[in-house]
Write a structure and sequence with these properties.
Blueprint: H1 2-12, E1 18-25, H2 33-47, E2 51-56, H3 71-74, H4 83-93, E3 94-102, H5 110-117, E4 123-125, E5 133-135, E6 143-149, H6 155-158, H7 161-172, E7 175-182, H8 195-212
Parallel strand pairs: 1-2, 1-3, 3-6, 6-7
Antiparallel strand pairs: 4-5
């Protein structure tokens, strides 16, 4: 395991952010409303001729943080060897990030929560009381946009979905330049008929692409 940790660290330590956007989908439902909105946002990115990648977390075999704290020493997650180990390079090299999640029980999905928790490895902690910390992703011009979709009618019923993505990203050093809440959408793919929501997602993608240049 020690040798594996060294390999994982070596594969990531020389990577640098570039003008690229990574889209991360947190929905377990393929071709659902979250997928449609994420695709629209990435289409907006593509309109500005910026490189973009896509990860659907439902297709990745990974688990949430186990709190082993090995990342404090290794500066990358070495306590687990799974699909997230392969995603770190994509996160590191993309200045822009698009996170999309449906609302599950007033919050983001378990897949999105696990993804965000696994970004804990980018924090550095000082041996002080209270514990001081910083992020190795900070001060690199990183930007993000967030999209949440739910069948409920208002922000109260959407709960913490947007905040659960925004607050951790800001702590990591991202500037959230835009966010979108889509309400009253449940039937699979129904958002395709919501032209205003599609235009908004596309616009967010374009704005993000311009911001990371």
């Amino acid at each position: 395991m020690k040798m594996l940790g060294s390999v994982i660290k070596a594969n990531n330590e020389n990577l640098r952010p570039r003008d690229k956007v990574l889209g991360v989908g947190g929905s377990p439902r393929k071709n659902g409303n979250s997928d449609v909105l994420l695709k629209q946002a990435l289409n907006g990115v593509g309109r500005e001729a910026i490189e973009c990648g896509l990860v659907q977390l439902r297709d990745v075999q990974f688990q949430g943080c186990i709190g082993c704290e090995k990342c404090r020493k290794d500066q990358i997650c070495t306590g687990l060897n799974d699909g997230m180990s392969l995603m770190y390079s994509q996160v590191i090299t993309a200045k822009g990030l698009v996170l999309v999640s449906p609302t599950h029980n007033y919050n983001i999905t378990a897949w999105m929560k696990a993804f965000i928790d696994r970004l804990y490895c980018f924090y550095e902690f000082a041996n002080t009381r209270p514990r001081a910390w910083s992020s190795r992703l900070a001060d690199q011009g990183r930007k993000a946009v967030l999209i949440a979709v739910c069948e409920q009618e208002n922000e109260k019923d959407m709960g913490f979905t947007l905040e659960a993505m925004k607050i951790p990203l800001e702590a990591l050093g991202y500037q959230v330049i835009g966010q979108q809440a889509v309400f009253r959408i449940f039937d699979k793919g129904k958002v395709k008929k919501d032209s205003k929501s599609l235009e908004k997602a596309f616009s967010l993608g374009r704005d993000l692409a311009k911001a990371v240049i």
